[in-house]
Amino acid sequence: MSRKSRKGYYVDGLFVVADKGPDPDGPSRTEVKHSSQALQDLGVELLTLRAELLAGLQLPERLGEAIAEAKRLTNFEAQRRQRQYIGKLMRELAAADVDAIAAALQVQRTSSSGDTRLLHEAEQWRDSLIADDQRLDEWIRLFPDTDVQQLRSLIRAARRDQKAAQTGTVQRHGRAYRQIFDLVRTRLQVLAGAGDLSI
Q1: Among residues 198, 186, 116, 113, which one has the least CA distance to residue 150?
Q2: pLDDT tens across 21-69, in order?
Q3: Maximum CA pair distance of the chain?
């Protein structure tokens, strides 16, 4: 059985094994590159983090300054270089700091999707209130302290606007349409704050 030849050199008649290079049991070059790119992407996403979430992260001073500078820059090439620099600083962070950043970004994504859901729900309620009187009865059951007279008046005005829009005399969505949306959204936000948005 042939033995693998070892690379090295002789010093005073003794064979010295040359440096083997990267640890064969460690991550491959590709894995290191992917990990590095993931950290750079996380650093770029960090630029979108809301101020109150960013403040709670306790980032190293250099990274905090680099983020502030990246937000200030307007030149595309300067922004690209700054993002690379942020990626370099991200690679120097401890794993716990990287996890904290990822968690803060997840909190932001979750709250953003909740806001989007609330807006869609408000749009659906507005449209159904204008289209169907039974939905108004359901709304009053859910929110008994609603100013019913005001809401009925807004619905009538929105319906008049829709009829007028069919003849081309006014815009389809007038002020009443927007006011119904604002009223509904405000009530749903209160409900969401109480932790129950399953209506």
Answers
A1: 186
A2: 555 556 677 877 878 888 888 888 888 888 888 888 888 999 999 999 9
A3: 103
